[in-house]
Amino acid sequence: MNQQLANMIDHTLLKPNVQDEQIVELCKEAREYQFASVCVEPCYVSLAAEQLKDSGVEICTVIGFPLGANTLATKVFEAKDAIANGATEIDYVLSISDVLNGRWEQVEREMRAFTELRDEANAGVIVKVILETCYLTDAQVVEACRLARETGLDFVKTSTGFGTGGATVDHIRMMRETVGDACGVKASGGIRTREDALAMVEAGASRIGASASVAIVTDGGSNEGSGY
Ligand SMILES: O=C[C@H](O)COP(=O)(O)O
């Protein structure tokens, strides 16, 4: 097992039919392999936080997930509630409609709202913006990354795992080139093997989001994924 790789992985379980015992198991695995975080739906943040007390594993959750289509006020409320319940990492889906309609000032406003709520939380919370790159042009990916860097977000992230495509090496390279050292880059969606994960790291990813994390670090492969 490659510990360095494990330390970079958000151990993810995002499905409509998740139950408590699966979250308990996810947390057990995260503690054992020392993954960076568990990534769970907001309704499971409290349970995960309780399970992972004093483990060093962060509690990541997803906001406006998976479509990014909620209004900003709803996303902000959801994020604050998740932090109050114990979330330390917030992965929010950006307003894809604003990007597609060229409303970049709205995209920026949303990013600033997230950096503000992160700074107000003042508890080592970090924010990642999920771009859902499968729906964007390269120019839109670059512009979103440029704004994320400018507004001070912590990470840019490729995918929800529920779109028409996941992380690609080309997108990761483009995202890293745009944010430089100012932000982390998270590759997620469709990463099933150690080989997939290492290709993303090689291209510039500093975090991997995956449902198949255990298979990745134990050198196997898996068909496990979030998507429908
Ligand atoms: O946010 C992370 C993704 O949902 C993970 O995608 P995956 O289930 O395809 O590994």
UniProtKB/TrEMBL annotation:
<dbReference type="GO" id="GO:0016052">
    <property type="term" value="P:carbohydrate catabolic process"/>
</dbReference>
<protein>
    <recommendedName>
        <fullName>Deoxyribose-phosphate aldolase</fullName>
        <ecNumber>4.1.2.4</ecNumber>
    </recommendedName>
</protein>
<feature type="active site" description="Schiff-base intermediate with acetaldehyde">
    <location>
        <position position="157"/>
    </location>
</feature>
<comment type="similarity">
    <text>Belongs to the DeoC/FbaB aldolase family. DeoC type 1 subfamily.</text>
</comment>
<dbReference type="InterPro" id="IPR013785">
    <property type="entry name" value="Aldolase_TIM"/>
</dbReference>
<feature type="active site" description="Proton donor/acceptor">
    <location>
        <position position="186"/>
    </location>
</feature>
<dbReference type="GO" id="GO:0004139">
    <property type="term" value="F:deoxyribose-phosphate aldolase activity"/>
</dbReference>
<feature type="active site" description="Proton donor/acceptor">
    <location>
        <position position="91"/>
    </location>
</feature>
<comment type="pathway">
    <text>Carbohydrate degradation; 2-deoxy-D-ribose 1-phosphate degradation; D-glyceraldehyde 3-phosphate and acetaldehyde from 2-deoxy-alpha-D-ribose 1-phosphate: step 2/2.</text>
</comment>
<dbReference type="InterPro" id="IPR011343">
    <property type="entry name" value="DeoC"/>
</dbReference>
<dbReference type="InterPro" id="IPR002915">
    <property type="entry name" value="DeoC/FbaB/LacD_aldolase"/>
</dbReference>
<keyword id="KW-0704">Schiff base</keyword>
<dbReference type="GO" id="GO:0009264">
    <property type="term" value="P:deoxyribonucleotide catabolic process"/>
</dbReference>
<comment type="function">
    <text>Catalyzes a reversible aldol reaction between acetaldehyde and D-glyceraldehyde 3-phosphate to generate 2-deoxy-D-ribose 5-phosphate.</text>
</comment>
<keyword id="KW-0456">Lyase</keyword>
<dbReference type="InterPro" id="IPR028581">
    <property type="entry name" value="DeoC_typeI"/>
</dbReference>
<keyword id="KW-0963">Cytoplasm</keyword>
<dbReference type="GO" id="GO:0006018">
    <property type="term" value="P:2-deoxyribose 1-phosphate catabolic process"/>
</dbReference>
<dbReference type="GO" id="GO:0005737">
    <property type="term" value="C:cytoplasm"/>
</dbReference>
<dbReference type="Pfam" id="PF01791">
    <property type="entry name" value="DeoC"/>
</dbReference>
